[in-house]
């Protein structure tokens, strides 16, 4: 038997299969390596994109925050430049200042506010909580404002972030500081989040180691709090911790104050979302056929690296502030969608940034330049050597508040838009048209002489006065216009922008006061305006500084030639300005809200003097003048009675003199006040009668005891004159109503004779005596105790 070699049966794979498997494994390995490479490239690109987004977010926030601060500063500056606001701050009356802060909250939404003295001392403050302002922080802000002209930014108050603006108040010198603020966080976080797609939060350092999140979801516990306490202006966060999303902290508050940070966090998961489907497709293709996988790997490699690089380069361009170059969008796949979304984001950021820049210098309703932008444009035009002359016009719509009250603010806004349109149509190309207030418009008319500018101004007003239709409602708007022509002086210079604007405001005030449609600036009005500001600023100090005194002019019974009353006349002698007449300071006191203080001083002083001369044996009463503002005071009767009781003089010895115009300002309130005075025994005299607009029906309603004929009818009174007939009519009318008649301004014996023949009751004037100081009044009364038989001037 023969042995045969045994064959080994191997169950191994064939070469072809191995080759296929090797090739397939090689391709699979290549695909896996490629897929991993794509994963790393995507992650690196996302990391770079997130970093770029953070830098872009910080840049956008800087511009957005700058615009918000500028708008707040503009609104606060407008309030501080308001004439009534300056006057109120100059008084340093705490209730008035608190009222101003409440008004500021209503007008511009300033929930936080403070009014400071020139040295930084807090005069009044308004805080939502009961907290106090940090004096050290205030001193630093005031010091900053002294150098820069203002201070603005973000501070922490009572654990809350507050955006503030601090500006000086001049009248004309520095009379104080106005600081207003708004709660910071909610609106800003929402807006920056919408613009950039980042996740914002606001952090406040309650101490060097304790931080709290006021808005947003980011937690300071995620990092070492000491890093934030380093006071760096910009600080990358989470850079070395891949488990956390990258973030950047932006210091909002000053280094020496409580730290307030805006944290911008980039959401890695959100950024990765557009790539998720792409990764799944790559993985699926890796499991396909070898040739197709190799071909697909080649295509995918190109498809992945190209768009990611384009996105990274585009993000770098955006980080540098370039928004004009869009990504090319090819096809309709996910990369095309991502490129389209990136382009939309780039366009949205560019539009928002452009809108922020535009809104910071323009009125949102009319798209005209606002006040600050107008001043910049005006300054640039005045600096042009090619401008020889021109005119600045300030236009104010009459009774525009009534349009809002009657038709609503929607109609009012449309009316303002129509006014802006008409102004643009009337002026020439290149002329300035701006809206600088609610119903105030500023126009710069370049290259016109004074006569042509006045003609153009009247044409402007006439154009605005033409009928308009707002939502089917007919409407006609009248306007007042102040015009300031200007031209280069001998040295070739022009007034600066703010000087011209101030002069335009003065001219506008003249137009309103004089009832003229167009009023030109008058040389010297600046000095008069500054004098008025000085007088208003000195009024309160003059009261406290005993600069006022009373003079008394006798009122003589014509029939018996006996003195029954004297009229108290207020006199002011300023140590620097000299004698200031009541015709000048009384209207200013009324506008500044100080006339009630003057009236109470006069009441107190007159009662004190009357008590002194009654102790000397003279039973004469005193007549005291009241203004329209006094008549609106429901406590006036109690104030007078308190002074009467305090000095132990009878109420029946007091006569209050009120003008027709003061009574007609609020007839019902005036009647109620005068009736309350008469109920206490105080007599009422209607002063300056004959110059007002009261009707017989109104005169019949007035609770008066006497009529005082205006001196314009008495100064030249002579037999047979028109004045005699007018006075006769007033005497008969007054006697028919049971009133006593007083004539002021008697200066001649002929005039006194006419009054006696007409049976006028009382006369007053230089024929008897000029106003006398209290120390000269008693000797005069003693000299004429038995009556006045002839001209009795001292």
Question: What does this molecule look like?
Answer:
The radius of gyration is 41 Å and the shape is elongated. It has 794 residues and is α+β, with helices and mostly antiparallel strands. It is 50% helix and 20% strand. The strands form five sheets. The protein has an eight-stranded mixed barrel with strand order 18-19-21-22-23-24-25-26, surrounded by four helices. Strands 2-1-5-4-3 form a five-stranded antiparallel β-sheet, with helices on both faces. Residues 1-10 and 14-20 have low confidence and may be disordered. The chain is built from 25 helices and 27 strands.
Short description:
This protein is of the alpha+beta class and 794 residues long. 50% of the residues lie in helices and 20% in strands. It has an eight-stranded mixed β-barrel with strand order 18-19-21-22-23-24-25-26, surrounded by four helices. Strands 2-1-5-4-3 form a five-stranded antiparallel sheet, sandwiched between helices.
């Amino acid at each position: 038997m023969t042995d045969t070699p045994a064959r080994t049966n191997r169950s191994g794979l064939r070469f072809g299969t191995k080759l296929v498997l090797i090739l397939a494994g090689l391709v699979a390995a290549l695909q896996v390596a490629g897929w991993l490479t794509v994963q790393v490239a995507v992650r690196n690109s996302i990391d770079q994109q997130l970093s770029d987004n953070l830098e872009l977010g910080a840049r956008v926030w800087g511009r957005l925050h700058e615009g918000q601060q500028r708008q707040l500063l503009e609104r606060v500056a407008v309030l501080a430049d308001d004439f009534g606001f300056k006057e109120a701050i100059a008084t340093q009356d705490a209730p008035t200042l608190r009222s101003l802060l409440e008004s500021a909250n209503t007008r511009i939404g300033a929930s936080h506010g403070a009014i400071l003295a020139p040295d930084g001392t807090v005069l009044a403050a308004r805080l939502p909580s009961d907290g106090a302002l940090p004096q050290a922080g205030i001193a630093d802000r005031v010091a900053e404002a002294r150098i820069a002209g203002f201070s603005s930014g973000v501070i922490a108050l009572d654990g809350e972030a507050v955006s503030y603006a601090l500006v000086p108040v001049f009248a004309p010198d520095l009379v104080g500081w106005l600081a207003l603020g708004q709660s910071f966080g909610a609106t800003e976080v929402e807006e920056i989040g919408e613009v950039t797609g980042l996740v914002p939060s606001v952090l406040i350092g309650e101490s060097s180691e304790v931080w709290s999140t006021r808005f947003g979801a980011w937690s300071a516990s995620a990092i070492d709090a000491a890093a934030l306490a380093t006071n760096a202006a910009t600080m990358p966060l989470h850079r070395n911790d891949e488990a956390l999303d990258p973030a950047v902290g932006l210091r909002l508050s000053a280094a020496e104050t409580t730290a307030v940070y805006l944290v911008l966090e980039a959401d890695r998961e959100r950024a990765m979302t557009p790539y998720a489907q792409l990764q799944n497709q790559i993985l699926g293709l890796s499991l396909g056929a070898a040739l197709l996988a190799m071909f697909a790997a080649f295509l995918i490699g190109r498809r992945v690296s190209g768009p990611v690089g384009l996105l990274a380069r585009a993000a770098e361009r955006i980080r540098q502030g370039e928004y004009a170059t869009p990504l090319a969008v090819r096809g309709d796949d996910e990369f095309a969608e991502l490129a389209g979304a990136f382009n939309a984001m780039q366009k949205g950021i560019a539009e928002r940034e452009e809108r922020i820049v535009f809104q910071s210098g323009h009125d949102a309703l009319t798209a005209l330049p606002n006040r600050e932008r107008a001043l910049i444009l005006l300054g640039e035009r005045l600096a042009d050597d090619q401008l020889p002359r021109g005119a600045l016009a300030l236009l104010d719509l009459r009774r525009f508040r009534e349009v809002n009250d009657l038709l609503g603010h929607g109609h009012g806004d449309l009316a303002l838009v129509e006014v802006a349109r008409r102004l643009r149509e009337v002026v020439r190309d290149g002329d300035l048209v701006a809206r600088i207030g609610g119903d105030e418009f500023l126009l710069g008319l370049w290259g016109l002489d004074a006569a042509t500018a006045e003609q153009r101004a009247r044409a402007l007003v006439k154009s605005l006065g033409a009928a308009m239709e707002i939502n089917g409602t007919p409407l006609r708007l009248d306007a007042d216009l102040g015009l300031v022509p200007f031209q280069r002086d001998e040295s070739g210079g022009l007034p600066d922008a703010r000087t011209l604007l101030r002069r335009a405001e003065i001219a506008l005030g003249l137009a309103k006061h004089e009832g003229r449609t167009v009023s030109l600036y008058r040389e010297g009005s600046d000095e008069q305006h500054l004098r008025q500001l000085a007088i208003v600023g000195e009024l309160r100090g003059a009261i406290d500084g005993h600069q006022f005194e009373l003079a008394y002019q006798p009122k003589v019974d014509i029939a018996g030639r006996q003195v029954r009353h004297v009229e108290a006349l207020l006199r002011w002698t300023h140590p620097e300005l000299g004698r200031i007449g009541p015709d000048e300071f009384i209207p200013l006191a009324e506008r500044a809200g100080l006339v009630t203080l003057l009236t109470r001083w006069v009441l107190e002083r007159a009662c004190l003097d009357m008590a002194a001369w009654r102790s000397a044996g003279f039973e004469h009463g005193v007549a005291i003048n009241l203004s329209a503002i006094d008549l609106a005071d429901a406590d006036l009767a109690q104030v007078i009675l308190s002074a009467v009781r305090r000095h132990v003089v009878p109420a029946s010895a007091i006569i209050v003199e009120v003008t027709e115009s003061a009574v007609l300002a609020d007839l019902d309130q005036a009647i109620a006040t005068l009736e309350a005075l008469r109920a206490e025994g105080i007599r009422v005299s209607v002063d300056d009668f004959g110059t007002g607009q009261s009707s017989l029906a109104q005169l019949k309603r007035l609770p008066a005891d006497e009529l005082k004929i205006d001196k314009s009818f008495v100064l030249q009174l002579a037999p047979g004159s028109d004045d005699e007939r007018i006075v006769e009519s007033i005497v008969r009318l007054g006697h028919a109503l049971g009133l006593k008649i007083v004539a002021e301004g008697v200066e001649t014996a002929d005039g006194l004779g006419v009054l006696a023949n007409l049976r006028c009751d009382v006369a007053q004037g230089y024929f008897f005596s000029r106003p006398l100081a209290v120390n000269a009044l008693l000797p005069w009364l003693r000299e004429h105790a038995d009556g006045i038989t002839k001209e009795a001037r001292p």
